[in-house]
Structures are given as structure tokens and as C-alpha cells.
Amino acid sequence: MKIKNVSELREFVAHQLERLCDNEIVPEQANACAMLSANMLLSVKLEMEYSKLIEQKPKIEFMENRCKTKLIEHNEVKSEIRNHRRISAIILQCIIGYYLAVVTCLTIFFITLAFD
Question: Which residue has the higher pLDDT, 48 or 65?
């Protein structure tokens, strides 16, 4: 089995745990798989720390997300936030306007009651 990314490594380790629980493998075999998996992740961590030291963004295929969805650009997100803020401001203005209208109507109602 060729493990190409972290997700597959996680599945492999989980499968080995299941095999150990089902007595298909001995603890020594499971321990060897766990140690190798840990060493793989430590090598990735080392590469990430090195990239941070030399101030470069790491390109580690093992850690890459295989999802094909399009990433949203930062400016698109900012634009969406602005649109939501505008909509929220409009809704708030409507609520305040409604509140003022209700208060005005109640005030007029009570004034007319007082003079009747």
C-alpha cells in the first residue's frame, strides 16, 4: 500500500489498530507501524520548521489537500463581508424606523386618551 498523504496515513494507522484489536497482527507489528508513521510525521514537521526558519512557504505534497474546490480570494471575502455589513445596516435602520413608528403611534394614542 502506497501512502500518498496524511489522510491515507491516518486510515492506515486506524486499519492497523482494527487489525490489532481483531488479533490479526501482534502488538510488535502494530508498534512498528505506529513508529514508522510517527517518523513520517516528524519528518514533515522538520521540513515545516525549516521552511519557517528560511522564511519560505513549505510545499509538502504529503500535506496537500486533495480537494478540488476553488479557494476564495481574500478580496472576494472582504467584498462579501462589506455586503453583509451593508445589509445588516439596512435591516438595523428598518428596525429602528419601525420602533420609532410604534413609539410615535403609542404616544399619540396615549395623548388622545388623556384628552378624551
Answer: 48
